[in-house]
Amino acid sequence: MTMKVDSDRQTRRDASPAAKGVPQLKQERAIRTRAVILKAAAAAFAERGFPNVTIVDIADRAGMTKGAVYFHFGSKEALALAVAEEFYRYLTHTMRPALEKDQDPVDKVADLLRRAAASFRDDPITQAGARLQIERQYIGVDMPLPYVGFTDLIASLLQQGLEQGLLPEGATPEALARVLVSAVFGAQHISWVLEDRSDVVERTQEVLDAVLYLPRQQRAAREPVGR
């Protein structure tokens, strides 16, 4: 009889609202811990580079034990992959306000690239993602293909701009997108080396003026008055 009573009490405890909430609390705590580790890893990778960072370095930055880091990420390579994936998610998040603005497609492209430049200047996840792509040969896992989705988005906006007469006739949106993305991400790299990215937004604007806006101004100047 006593065993049955004890069993019934345990069943009631397991079915109580407090007991049901325990897994959710643990999951939320795990999500928060994972985010802290990712942020610490991103800062370390951005500052020192993948080859020069250890799990102990990341654990110290995160304020936790090495075992806690390994519980969430099985290796330094897994952490690098997670940071790179978070980088592209963050880029997508950064784009959203520009895409929702009421502006023409070419101005949306410029807005997107300026926002990306500001992220390179201000956000450790973005800085780490860019550096990890450069160091991908040192990382023993398959990293995301660099900037492919971002370039496709730019190309689709430029295609809309071409259809609206905002680009020169005969312009190739895909090629122009590749040039823009290469120039902007190259500019951020040079800005990083020379100025710790303090001038990356200005260097990005120079790219936009030369590649996007100057041709449009030249075309407008050649058009007959009153056309």
Automatic annotation (TrEMBL):
Record-linked Pfam families: TetR_N
HTH tetR-type domain sequence ranges: 31-91
DNA-binding segment(s): 54-73
Basic and acidic residues bias locations: 1-15
Record SUPFAM superfamilies: Homeodomain-like (SSF46689), Tetracyclin repressor-like, C-terminal domain (SSF48498)
Top-level taxon in the UniProt lineage: Bacteria
Record carries keyword Methyltransferase: no
Keywords: DNA-binding, Transcription, Transcription regulation
GO molecular function, one term: DNA binding
Region (Disordered) location: 1-26
Protein name: TetR family transcriptional regulator
Gene field: mmfR
